[in-house]
Amino acid sequence: MNSKKHYTLLSLLLIIGLLVSCNKEKKTNNIVESKIASDEYLISGTLKNIEDSTWIFINKDNEIIDSTRIINEKFEFKGTLDEPSSFFMMVGKTKPEYFVLWAENLKMKIEGDKGNIRNVSITGSKSQNEYNILKQRTDSLELVFENVISQLQNPDPDKMTNEIRNNLIKEQNDILTKIEEINQKFILDFPNSYVSASNLNDYAASWGREKVDELHIPLSEQMKNSSYGQSIKHFLSLPEVPEVGEKFIDFELTDLDDTPLKISDNKSKYTLIEFWASWCYPCRQENPKLIKTYNQYKDQGFEIIGVSIDQRKEDWIKAIKKDSLPWKQGVDLKGFKSDIALTYGINGIPDNFLIDEEGKIIAKTLRGNQLENKLKELFKN
């Protein structure tokens, strides 16, 4: 199963591990009525039945930007934003509960109860109101999706047959398609919403240039000039995704020694461009098999260039060393927003492209025994 990047609550679970290991301390104070400047936000929260000193974290763009402890069921955050942005709020460390907050430089209030954190009440933000409308449209589907994922990840060995598994995978893909369609309709309904611009930016690689361009045109000028709109514009300026039979598109990354790494510098007969990440379980699970295949064919002219979707350099380096990956590795630490990932249409990993010595793409998305079988065929000839 590919590790896909979807802007849903479920996809945000991928970053729980980052929060559980965070030990950032912050002084706790009695919550009083605060004054804020016009370029600041103030988030005042009340979460009933929450134990004193429970941690709450703000995660923005996969990075923890603030944290505090809940005292007497209350907490407060203050900061500043260049434009409205989504925060992924995590309550607790060991078994965290979570919710999404669309923050603006305004006073916002959060009210909720332990055990139902996901459905807290948030007021004071126009973007949050718009997000709530989208959430109402997708919530029932996301709950079903989570149930399907749970069955796939924790199967009952006495009941899980290949037919049931295939049906669950089909149901999972059907639900994702419906969620994407709802998001596309929302963008058309709310062309002057930061939520719309953000979602279009997040789904860009998955939807492709034609659909993104179609949805980008109706956006308001304010949204087109936002950071999300500028990112979408950049995406639309990139080359079309190369297909099998076409020449590869060259790119430059930084390797483990902080030196430039380009595909065109490699002169092997066949080169596999392998997209992966340290946090991607299916990628890491497949590495031993990939190493075996690499060792079997490297002396015959086979090479691998690993392209990481990581955003944390230390995690990338640690994973390479732990898995003993012997081939060349490159990264730009931009995740799925990397020009390389966008150019090659990567919205799920692991994924790969196999290139011949003339630079032509001869196969893609070779998983399991498919790569070994392909190389056996190529080197036999």
UniProtKB/TrEMBL annotation:
Residues 242-381 form the Thioredoxin domain. Signal peptide: none annotated. Its main location: other. InterPro entries: AhpC/TSA, DUF4369, Thioredoxin-like_sf, Thioredoxin_domain, Thioredoxin_ResA/DsbE_sf. Gene3D superfamilies: Glutaredoxin (3.40.30.10). It is found in: Cell envelope. Coiled coil: none annotated. It comes from the Bacteria. Keywords: Cytochrome c-type biogenesis, Disulfide bond, Redox-active center. Pfam families: AhpC-TSA (PF00578), DUF4369 (PF14289). This is Redoxin domain-containing protein.
